Structures are given as structure tokens and as C-alpha cells.
């Protein structure tokens, strides 16, 4: 776990404040119609858009969102994956605590659906605190995604859990899935506990 900026745990407002200005949103139809005479660009767009070229991709018809975050998965080498269902009552997540052995390398995988339109510059932001004190902050650039029928995913680079007596204990994590257009796709809170061993 790397040391990050000290901020209030639930203060995500500054995540979208930068000098970078994303390009204006375009629909899939607008993208397909542009530069039709450029063969290489046309082929690139076909590869990028995939299934979405043939018509709107809508996976959950009763959900108007473009990005539907489904699951957070803790990935540790040689251990069974542990997941949190993000499609239900998010207030219940704090009752499910991940246990992580101190010093192990782990990754977090976010599984999500993209439907209706392309999403640009997805970001996963995670702020961690222990006993109300901010101890870590990570911002991962997830990328741009075209709609697909299948679940898509992003896995963070490996992080090492802290070690030692002071590192052990419970941590609260505030997570945000956002994008370049400042859309808040999902914000949730979850917990994990650093222990000396898996069975402590």
C-alpha cells in the first residue's frame, strides 16, 4: 500500500479538477459517420467499436446508465478470489470485511458493463483511512470503453499490504468510479482488515 495524499476520506470533488479538458462527447453514430473516406481510420473505428457498430448495445434496458459497476474483486496469488457485489444495497458492504495477510501482494479488479454509448477516460479512485486518519490514496486511469454485451474489467497494478503491528487492524475504503466527463458512475464504501496471518 503506497502512501498518498492526505485528504478527507469522502472528498472526491477534486478528482476531476485539472487543466486537462476532455474532448466533447460524441455518439457512436457520429464517430462512425466522421472521416468515411479515410480507410485506415475507418478500420480503426471498427476495431474500437466492435459490437456497437451494428446498433445500440443495451444490456440492462431498465438501467439508463452508460456504466454499470457490478463487482469489486480482491485478487491475491494462490488464494481464492473474494468479491463484493456492487449491484445491490451498497450500505451492506461495510458488513463484509476482506481479510488480507500483512505483506502480501494483491490487486483489485473492478468488473463493469458499458452500454448505450462509449465512455471516455474511466478512472478508479480509492481513498483509505484507518481510525479516521487518511493513510493512502490511489487514482488509476482505467481507459475508454465501447459498449459490449459482455462484462468488462480493469485490474489495478500489484500493491503490497503493509506489515508490522501498527499496520494491522481495520481500514475503511472510499471508492469512486468516474470518468473524464465528470460522471459519477458509482461511489461506495468497504472495509478490509490487515492480519498477521490469513487465519488469525
UniProtKB/TrEMBL annotation:
Cellular component GO terms, alphabetically?
Answer: cytosol; membrane
Just give the chief location class: cytoplasm
Q: Where is this region: Disordered?
A: 1-28
Name the domain of life: Eukaryota
What Gene3D superfamilies does the record tag this protein with? Coagulation Factor XIII, subunit A, domain 1 (2.70.50.30)
Mind listing the UniProt keywords for this protein, alphabetically? Cytoplasm
According to its UniProt entry, one GO biological process term is: Rho protein signal transduction
Q: Name one GO molecular function term.
A: Rho GDP-dissociation inhibitor activity
The cellular location(s) given in this protein's UniProt record come to: Cytoplasm
Pfam families (UniProt xref): Rho_GDI
Annotated PANTHER family: LD16419P, RHO GDP-DISSOCIATION INHIBITOR
Family of this protein: Belongs to the Rho GDI family.
Q: What does this protein do?
A: Inhibits GDP/GTP exchange reaction of RhoB. Interacts specifically with the GDP- and GTP-bound forms of post-translationally processed Rhob and Rhog proteins, both of which show a growth-regulated expression in mammalian cells. Stimulates the release of the GDP-bound but not the GTP-bound RhoB protein. Also inhibits the GDP/GTP exchange of RhoB but shows less ability to inhibit the dissociation of prebound GTP.
Q: What is this protein called?
A: Rho GDP-dissociation inhibitor 3
Q: What is the lineage of its organism?
A: Eukaryota, Metazoa, Ecdysozoa, Arthropoda, Hexapoda
Amino acid at each position: 500500500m503506497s502512501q498518498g495524499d492526505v485528504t478527507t476520506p469522502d472528498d472526491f470533488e477534486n478528482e476531476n479538477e485539472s487543466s486537462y479538458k476532455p474532448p466533447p462527447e460524441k455518439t457512436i453514430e457520429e464517430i462512425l459517420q466522421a472521416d468515411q473516406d479515410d480507410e485506415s481510420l475507418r478500420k480503426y473505428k471498427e476495431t474500437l467499436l466492435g459490437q456497437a457498430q451494428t446498433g445500440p448495445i443495451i444490456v440492462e434496458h431498465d438501467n439508463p446508465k452508460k456504466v454499470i459497476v457490478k463487482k469489486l474483486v480482491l485478487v491475491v496469488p494462490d488464494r481464492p478470489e473474494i468479491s463484493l457485489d456492487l449491484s445491490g444495497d451498497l450500505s451492506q458492504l461495510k458488513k463484509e470485511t476482506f481479510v488480507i495477510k500483512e505483506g502480501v501482494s494483491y490487486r483489485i479488479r473492478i468488473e463493469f458493463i458499458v452500454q448505450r454509448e462509449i465512455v471516455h477516460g474511466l478512472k478508479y479512485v480509492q481513498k483509505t483511512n484507518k481510525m479516521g486518519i487518511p493513510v493512502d490514496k490511489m487514482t488509476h486511469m482505467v481507459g475508454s470503453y465501447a459498449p459490449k454485451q459482455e462484462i468488462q474489467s480493469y485490474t489495478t497494478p500489484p500493491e503490497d499490504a503493509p506489515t508490522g503491528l501498527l499496520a494491522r487492524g481495520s481500514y475503511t475504503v472510499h471508492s469512486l468510479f468516474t470518468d473524464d466527463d465528470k460522471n459519477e458512475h458509482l461511489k461506495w464504501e468497504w472495509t478490509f482488515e490487515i492480519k498477521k496471518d490469513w487465519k488469525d
